[in-house]
Design goal:
It is a single chain. The protein contains 11 helices and 8 strands. With about 290 residues, the protein is of the alpha/beta class. The protein has an 8-stranded mixed β-sheet, sandwiched between helices. The protein binds nicotinamide-adenine-dinucleotide. Nicotinamide-adenine-dinucleotide binds next to α1 and α10.
Amino acid sequence: MRTITDIQHIAVIGAGVMGRGIALAAALAGYKATLYDIHAQTLEQSAQYFEKFLSDSVSRGKMDAATKVSIIGHLHLTQDLADLKADFIVEAILENLELKQKVLREVEVINADDAIIASNTSTIPITRIGAGLQHPGRLIGMHFFNPAPIMKLVEVISGAATEVWVSDVTFALAQKMGKTAVHAQDEPGFIVNRVARHFYLESLKVLEERGADHETIDRVMENVGFKMGPFKLMDLIGVETNHEVTKSLYEAFFHDEKFRPSRVQQKKVDAGHFGRKSGRGFYSYDK
Ligand code: NAD
């Protein structure tokens, strides 16, 4: 059993949109952060992301140059699974139950029995992920939002087997990272993704029915008070990730019509138009 003061080293599995942001958020809070991915190119992109984020912070006067050097020193990039031996591990790989369970089983065996393992899943129940692990008691959901170093909210989700001390340490860790932590029930999509699904799906329906084009829908929603329109947000999240989240919720709610995935979005995914990360989604971007 660990307490928050035992947490010194955080390892993150998956260096995509979320994993690199979570590793940076951990380093910004003073933790040693190890970021692992199977793809070298993703790690290189993560290093560029760290450099850009921190340089921008320095040029905007939010951070001094010495702090930047110190934070870079806290961040370690690796393709070696053995480096994932840590006090607290956050999984941020693709939204796929079997893959998450497979990778987490490998991570379990190299770590102490009381190292905490958190999943950043958007929709998959923690109880279900834990069912494939050796020690489901130390598995928890720790759901960050994109971009992770900036967005304040973190949903903390206990599965049926999650031990209370694991939840307490995770909640405290989120707070130490400067986040607003909330406990959410282990229901598909937790709170935010379940509610937000309709923001995306109804917008996609309006587009499909030619009610308005995507730019107009974004502009209208932004004018009514949303910080970002649904199509800009899907491009930021990753169109394919957002689609996977919808498919996962649709399955989890036994094909409830209101969560039916969008064919317009499927077409975007088929075309490789994933959003900012691929240079094209609903909008085009300079890569
Ligand atoms: P992503 O596609 O950007 O990144 C996934 C990363 O996982 C890739 O870099 C890939 O190389 C890596 N990966 C795949 N298989 C791996 C393996 N076996 N071992 C190690 N790395 C592996 O996806 P993302 O958007 O960062 O999403 C990751 C998780 O976070 C998902 O569960 C998603 O639902 C969740 N999430 C996403 C967002 C978002 O806005 N994108 C927000 C909150 C939560």
